[in-house]
Design goal:
135 residues; 76% helix; 4 helices; mainly alpha
Length: 135
């Protein structure tokens, strides 16, 4: 499956978050490429762990802004984050148990969720935080 390419419509106009979004896409593309190339379990496991850790770090960054600026849709946005984090954890656990046959479906889910989340859900907080001087 093709890599996710960063596009202008993904910008939230907050430098730190835009950079993190680009990094998330890069990790997902690395995971996709490693799966396509049939890399060994250890390498895939390392990329999955990096994805899980970086996702947590990124979500904490966004949620810190939500709290600091009292973003009114914070709860629903955090719920989206929680759902994704649970799916990444579920994928990681399945992979660790040897269920590599789910990899294509999972990578489609991961890439689709991140792509849609950044382009739709994250765009909701962008004007709110930008108007408060967060750039």
């Amino acid at each position: 499956m093709p890599e996710i390419v960063w596009t202008e419509d993904m910008l939230v106009h907050i430098e730190k978050i835009d950079h993190q979004h680009q990094k998330l896409l890069s990790i997902l593309n690395d995971l996709n490429e490693a799966m396509l190339q049939g890399k060994d379990k250890e390498m895939l496991s390392d990329i999955i762990a990096h994805l899980a850790d970086y996702t947590f770090y990124h979500f904490m960054t966004e949620e810190k802004y939500f709290e600091e600026y009292e973003y009114p849709e914070s709860d629903s946005h955090k719920f989206e984050h929680q759902y994704f984090a649970e799916e990444v954890t579920r994928f990681r656990n399945q992979f660790d148990q040897g269920r590599r046959d789910l990899s294509e479906d999972i990578i489609l889910f991961l890439k689709g969720w991140v792509f849609n989340h950044v382009r739709k859900i994250d765009q909701k907080y962008s004007p709110f935080l930008n108007a408060r001087g967060v750039t």
